[in-house]
Amino acid sequence: MTVTIEPSSISENAGTATGTITRSTTIGELVVMLSSDDVGEATVPASVTIADGSSSGTFTITGVNDNILDGTQTVNLATSADGFSDVQHSLAITDSDSATLSIVGTTDGNEVGPVNGQFTVNASTISTTDVTVNYTISGTATAGMDFTTLSGSVVIPANAPSATIDVLTLDDGLAEVVETLTLTLGDVTADGDVTLAAEQSAASISIVSDDLNTISVSKSTVTVSEDGTTATFDVSLKAQPAGNVFVNVVSSDIGEAAVSSTMLTFTPLNWHQPQAVTVIGIDDAIADGTQAIDVTVSVNVAASSSDFRFAETLTVDILNADNEAPAAVVRLEDVTFFNKDANLEDGLSPETSGQRSIIKQVQVVLEGTATNHCRFCI
Hints:
The protein has 2 helices and 30 strands. The protein is mostly beta strands. It has 4 domains: 2-94, Immunoglobulins (Immunoglobulin-like, Sandwich); 98-208, Immunoglobulin-like (Sandwich), CATH 2.60.40; 215-321, Immunoglobulins (Immunoglobulin-like, Sandwich); 330-377, no CATH class. The strands form 7 sheets. Strands 2-9-8-4-6 form a 5-stranded mixed sheet, with no helix packed on it. Strand 8 (73-80) and strand 9 form a beta hairpin.
């Protein structure tokens, strides 16, 4: 008994071939059992019957799409029948699968911790062999300063759906805005049809600095007075800037409190040296009690180095004590009428003077917030 197969190679995507079994006699019906050693690649019917009077019979071999990028596979087909020796025949199953590769940024890096960043490269179809893909590096983050230098390629292991690229975060000690790292996939080495996903061949992550690119003040509240008392507070940067940083210092009411400088300049050389601001109480000649004023301290974003453009605006509370005496509040407390000289009044008579005079004294008592009580007598 012999077996022939035509064609000798089929596609796994529903490709078919015809097998022919031939015997040396035509006498009697013969049932021939069939089997495939990899039904995930190709299937055959369980048996084929050669009719009485016929020397051969045929059967169909069908390719099976396994959705695995595995290249061309060889399938062995076996036949067996009573009175005949077993026969094997092989068939090539060509792969119809393909894969696209994509990349995503899965974890941002952070100098606090530190937290390492990570990318993931995904394959749309699993491959039975390693897939190697190269990548290029871009973005505002700097290799060797913000992260450990990367190799430039990654391998998706055989039978794995993805591979990760770890980005080891470094603390460069610089005050920086959030920086970016972008990886773009390039050349691919693989067995089979592997290409890059057009819309997902590049991805980015952020790397956050732990060096606070902001400003600080040494005091949150100071007290001055209208009689000339002053107070000071210091302004400083928390990290070294890439360029000059200009800090505005503004009083909310210059009629109550003024500042010695409305603009401070920090450079990459003097950034670590605090700069003093003196607050001077202003005498407004008004009895208005203690007044509360705000002094705001903020980065002049338009003129300053861009790495400090997100610095927080700070506020120092100023209390200015009044030096004018409060205005007197006077009220009428008492009015008393009495004779200045009752005896003299009794000695006067209409007969003597033609009229009787009444000599009276009026005492008015005023009390209030003035320093001394005032008594006015009329």
